[in-house]
Amino acid sequence: MKGKFFAIEEAKAFELIERTGKMMPAHRGIDRRCFIVGEYAVLSTSRLKLRNVDVRDDKLSHLNDIIEKLLLLEREGVNVVPILGYCYDPDSMDGEGFLIELRARGAEMYDDAMICKFEAWTQDNDEVYLKSDADCAEYITNRTRELALAPQAHYDKFIADMLEIMKRDILIDFMGKSNFFYDREAGFQFIDLDTHTDSHYGLCEDTISNKEVAAIGGFAPCHFAEGTSAFAPIALVPSALAELGEVRLAALAESNSLIFEKCLAALKANGVSDAVLDKTLQRLKVFDRRCC
Ligand SMILES: Nc1ncnc2c1ncn2[C@@H]1O[C@H](COP(=O)(O)OP(=O)(O)OP(=O)(O)O)[C@@H](O)[C@H]1O
Ligand SMILES: [Mg+2]
C-alpha cells in the first residue's frame, strides 16, 4: 500500500483503515463503501486511478490537485468535506484503496438508499442500488419537511459554495442527493468531490457558464415530477408515489414548494439572472400540488 497524507498523520490513517476491517459499512455508494470511525469517514474504492469514470489518472496528479483545492476551499470557509489523505495498491489496475475524510456533519440531504425506490432510474433496475427496508415514505415526507424549514441563509450559502467549487473546475454530481449533507447548524455540505469537470480534461467544450449550471444544480434539494427534462432519472414516479398516500403526498408537495422557493431566492441572491432562470426553469418540473 502506498499513500499520500495531506492533513492526517500516516500512522493515524493506517490505524483507521485497520479498524474498518472488523466493521460493517455505514453506507454503500456506487463504487464505495463508507465506514464511519469516530469523527472520520473511511471510503473504500476500486477506482482511485480513474477520474470521472474513465479518465486515467495513474499518477494521481489530478486527484492531488483536487485534494489541495478542497483544503484551500475549506480554509476559505466553503462547506466542502476535504479528503485528508489516501492510500492504495499501486499495482492494481484502477486503484484499489481508501480515501480518508472527516465525517460530514448531520446527515445526507436525502439518503439515496431510502428514496431511490420512488425515483425513475431504479424502476427497471432493481439490483443496482442497495435499497433500504426502512419506512421510506415516512422518511421522505419528514426529511423534506425538515429541509423546507431550513433557514434561507443555508440555501444562500449552498449556492455561494457551489459557485466557489465550480470556479475551481471541480465536478459536483447533482444527481445524487446523498452527495450533499445537511446539518441544522452547519447547513449544507458537499461530499463526493474527487474529479474535475469534463471540460477540464478536454473531453468537451466549456460552453455553459457556472451560473447556468447552478441554475439547474441549485434545485438539487427539490423533488421532481415525471416529465422533467433536467433531473429526469431521479423524477418521482407516480406509481411509486401511490405508496405515500394522499395525506403524505400533500405534505410532500407543500414542503417541496417551499424548498423550491428558497432555492430560487438563493440563486437570485447569488447573482443568477432572471433570464438564465427563465431558461432553466423550462427544463424543470418540480413536484408540487398539481402533481398529487
Ligand atoms: N465524509 C463523509 N462523511 C459521512 N458520510 C460519508 C462521507 N463520505 C461518504 N459518505 C457516505 O458514503 C456514501 C458514498 O460516498 P460517495 O458519495 O463519496 O461515493 P459514491 O457515491 O459511491 O461515489 P462514486 O459514485 O463517485 O463512486 C455517501 O453518499 C454518504 O452516505
Ligand atoms: Mg456519491
Strand content: 15-25%
Domain module tally: 2
Regions with little confidence, pLDDT below 50 for 5+ residues: none
Order of neighbouring strands in the sheet with most strands: 1-7-8-4-3-2
Helix count, per DSSP? 9
How would you characterize the largest beta sheet?
6 strands, antiparallel
Helix share bin: 25-40%
Mean pLDDT figure: 95
Class inferred from helices and paired strands:
alpha+beta
User: Globular, elongated, flat, extended or rod-shaped: what is the shape?
Assistant: globular
Number of strands: 11
Name the hetero compounds present: adenosine-5'-triphosphate, magnesium ion
Distance between the termini: 53 Å
Assembly type: single chain
Rg over C-alpha atoms, rounded to the nearest angstrom: 19 Å
Order of helices and strands: EHEEEEEHEEEHHHEEHHHH
Characterise the protein shown here:
With 292 residues, the chain is α+β, with helices and mostly antiparallel strands. The protein has 2 domains: 2-102, Phosphorylase Kinase, domain 1, CATH 3.30.200; 107-291, no CATH class. The chain has 9 helices and 11 strands. The strands form 3 sheets. A 6-stranded antiparallel β-sheet has the order 1-7-8-4-3-2. Strand 3 and strand 4 (40-45) form a beta hairpin. Helix 4 (136-148) runs parallel beside helix 8, helix 5 (152-167) crosses helix 8 and helix 6 crosses helix 9. Bound molecules: adenosine-5'-triphosphate (ATP) and magnesium ion.
